[in-house]
Amino acid sequence: MSTLKVLQKHQPKNNVVEEVRALVDETVSLHWVKAHIGIAGNEAADKSAKEASKKPTTDIHLPLPERSFKTQCKQHLMVHWKSTWEDEKNTKGRFTYSIFPEVSRSRCIDSRSITQAATNHGFCPSYFRRFNIKACTFRCGEDSSDDLQHYAQFCPLTSHLRNKIRSTHSLRHIITNRDTSKELIAILNYVQENEGEIFQQED
Ligand SMILES: [Zn+2]
């Protein structure tokens, strides 16, 4: 019920309404106005209401319903995310970009190991060197890239753990396919637990 209707009632129970009634005499008439925007009196009332509030900032005027506002916000964020992700000048996350060039709200990686594989921040010699953790190489001597993909797909030292992962698979396939991603996690765990058997210290 609008405040005006409440004010017209004979016995209003709301204290604020009673106060307003007490302030208003016959020199003041009350009128319902269709919309707030553009009506001088209403604008002034809005202004006073804002000043009276204790908020440090003024309210945002939403020219559309809350739900549409949320939808538009999401759309704007998606556009921003996409343009940033696809920006040729962007130097961040390019390894992940090479695997997932398109943005997606449904993609969700919740495994620490899979995150390592998808970001190239994995448990492997190239990563250790890049972040000055230690200098080592693969014991098998078969790889020069020293990355996680080597023992995930190619290394003879982990071949006994590979049933689903093939050397022809893309990293994207391994990460997104349920069986191969499970296997990848198992291989990563194995390498972490048997580090000394897979990596050798460099002099
Ligand atoms: Zn190897």
UniProtKB/TrEMBL annotation:
It comes from the Eukaryota. PROSITE patterns: RNASE_H_1. InterPro entries: RNaseH-like_sf, RNaseH_domain, RNaseH_sf. Pfam families: RNase_H (PF00075). Residues 1-54 form the RNase H type-1 domain. GO terms for molecular function: nucleic acid binding; RNA-DNA hybrid ribonuclease activity. This is RNase H type-1 domain-containing protein. It comes from Araneus ventricosus (Orbweaver spider).
